[in-house]
Structure formats: structure tokens, C-alpha cells
């Protein structure tokens, strides 16, 4: 906040407390305090020699995911998304890249992630629950800031300027926390009509299993109340949302598969931390629900 404009944030004590909380939120310090600081980068894609190494499946034993013992054809026949009904046991249909080692799939986010826990398998030493808690605390600060701002009586232009700055800082803090706590995965999101979902999913699943896309993928099954016209979503995961070279590589492969490109809608990339904290389209904080789109990588 500009010092000349700070006078409109209530009493001096209220101003001091709010200014201190907002300006004092240090993502790096929070991560260190909660012992979630991570170093290094996840392996974005194994080399060709990795294909001779041990195969991995974080979805082992999960009925709605591909098992390494079954062929791709058997998997796609067993769980065709067009006709596989969504249920408690089948919230999504999953496939992993068997050449990338990740944690076995489990819910390690607790109460913070109810309804949003089915994202990419996490990397070793990730701290999903703590990062989600920190991200939600940062959103609470943004909410307080916005409420004070809207009651300030200042001009709409000043209010908008201050809010945009704080929104940008909140996103940066949340992404910094995610990097620190090794919650770095994210996904490209494809939407397709039910009539095309088996074909599109087949291309994505095969490319994922053959180490040509990202670390994993999932597709939404048929909803309980089948909406014939409602598009299905397919998520293609990468290991690190900050690794734009790898995010762009996966996008280029989707173009090669004729799933993105001329005549097709723009697609968006969303960090998993945004999903974990409930940051979706039309959210109450006024934040964008994605950090890239397919036009971002156009040359």
C-alpha cells in the first residue's frame, strides 16, 4: 500500500494490524517455520534409458486406475469414460506415467482438501496439508484487505489499483509456498463432448503411458445424472508448474496429437495448489484460476 493512501484503512490500530499482517506475510519464512522448505526440482521427464528401469504406479490397487499388469487396450476397455459411471469408488479415471516415481496415491491433505483431493500423485517429501493451510491463510488476509478497501470510501480507481496489487502478491505468495513445500504439480485441462471423450482420452492415456506427456492424467467419468451436452474434462499433469519448458513441451505434444491447435478452443494450465485451496473460476477473491493458457506458448 502507498503510504499516502494508508489513512483510509480505519483506526490507526486497525491500520497497523492489517498493514503488518499483509506486508508481513513472508511465504519463505512461513515455509521455514513449518518445516516444509523444499530444495531441488522434481525430475520433469526421465531419459530414454529410464525405460529399462523399474516401472512405477502410484495408483497400484486403485480400481479406477490403470494397473501395470494390464495392457493399455484392456485398461481403456475396462474403464471407457463415455459409459463408466462416476461413483465414490470412481471419482475419476486415472493413468500414470510408469517411468516417473511418485508417492503412492493417498489423501494427505486432511480436512483442507475435501472434494479436491484427487490431483496428481505427489512427489517425495511434499507437504500438501501444510501448504494448503498456508495458502488458505493467505486468502484470508486477502479477504480482510478487500473488505477494508471496499469500505474505505476512496475512488473506484484507487480501490481497483490497490486490490489488483494485493491480488497479484497473494498469488505470488501462494505459488511460492507451493514451491517451498514441494506441491509443484499442475495440469493442462482439456474439455471435450461425451461423444468424443473415449477417443480423446485414448490418445492422452497412450501418450502418458509411453512417456510422451507428463507424470499422469485423469478423465471425468459419466456423471450420475448424465448430461449429454456437458463436456468432460481431461487433465494432463506436469511435475512443476514453474518449469515452463516442460509445461510447453507437454503442450506441443498435445498439439502433435491434434488435441490443441487451430480451430480448437484455448486450453488453460492450473497449478494443483489452486485446486487444493478451492481457487476455481469465479472465486470470491477475484483471482484467475490458471497461470498459463495455450496462447502463452505461441511463438
From TrEMBL:
Residues 1-20 are annotated as: Disordered. Gene3D superfamilies: RNA Cap, Translation Initiation Factor Eif4e. Signal peptide: none annotated. Belongs to the UPF0696 family. This is DNA polymerase II large subunit-like protein.
Amino acid at each position: 500500500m502507498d503510504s499516502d493512501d494508508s489513512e483510509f484503512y480505519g483506526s490507526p490500530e486497525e491500520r497497523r494490524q492489517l498493514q503488518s499482517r499483509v506486508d508481513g506475510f513472508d511465504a519463505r519464512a512461513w515455509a521455514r517455520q513449518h518445516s516444509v522448505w523444499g530444495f531441488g526440482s522434481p525430475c520433469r521427464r526421465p531419459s530414454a534409458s529410464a525405460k529399462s528401469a523399474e516401472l512405477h504406479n502410484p495408483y497400484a490397487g486403485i480400481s479406477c486406475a490403470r494397473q501395470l499388469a494390464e495392457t493399455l487396450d484392456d485398461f481403456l476397455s475396462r474403464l471407457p469414460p463415455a459409459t463408466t459411471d462416476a461413483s465414490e469408488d470412481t471419482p475419476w479415471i486415472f493413468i500414470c506415467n510408469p517411468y516417473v516415481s511418485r508417492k503412492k496415491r493417498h489423501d494427505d491433505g486432511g480436512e483442507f482438501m475435501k472434494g479436491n483431493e484427487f490431483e496428481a500423485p505427489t512427489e517425495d517429501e511434499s507437504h500438501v496439508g501444510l501448504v494448503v493451510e498456508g495458502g488458505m491463510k493467505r486468502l484470508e488476509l486477502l479477504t480482510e484487505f478487500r473488505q477494508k478497501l471496499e469500505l474505505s470510501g476512496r475512488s473506484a480507481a484507487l480501490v481497483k489499483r490497490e486490490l489488483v496489487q494485493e491480488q497479484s502478491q497473494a498469488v505470488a505468495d501462494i505459488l511460492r509456498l507451493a514451491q517451498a513445500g514441494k506441491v509443484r504439480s499442475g495440469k493442462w485441462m482439456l474439455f471435450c463432448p461425451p461423444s468424443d471423450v473415449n477417443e480423446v482420452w485414448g490418445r492422452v492415456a497412450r501418450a502418458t503411458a509411453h512417456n510422451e506427456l507428463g507424470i499422469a492424467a485423469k478423465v471425468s467419468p459419466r456423471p450420475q445424472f448424465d448430461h449429454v451436452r456437458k463436456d468432460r474434462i481431461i487433465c494432463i499433469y506436469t511435475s512443476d508448474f514453474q518449469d515452463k519448458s516442460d509445461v510447453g513441451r507437454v503442450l506441443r505434444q498435445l498439439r502433435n496429437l491434434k488435441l490443441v491447435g487451430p480451430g480448437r478452443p484455448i486450453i488453460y494450465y492450473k497449478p494443483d495448489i489452486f485446486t487444493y485451496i478451492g481457487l476455481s473460476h469465479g472465486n470470491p477473491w477475484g483471482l484467475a484460476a490458471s497461470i498459463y493458457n495455450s496462447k502463452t506458448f505461441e511463438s
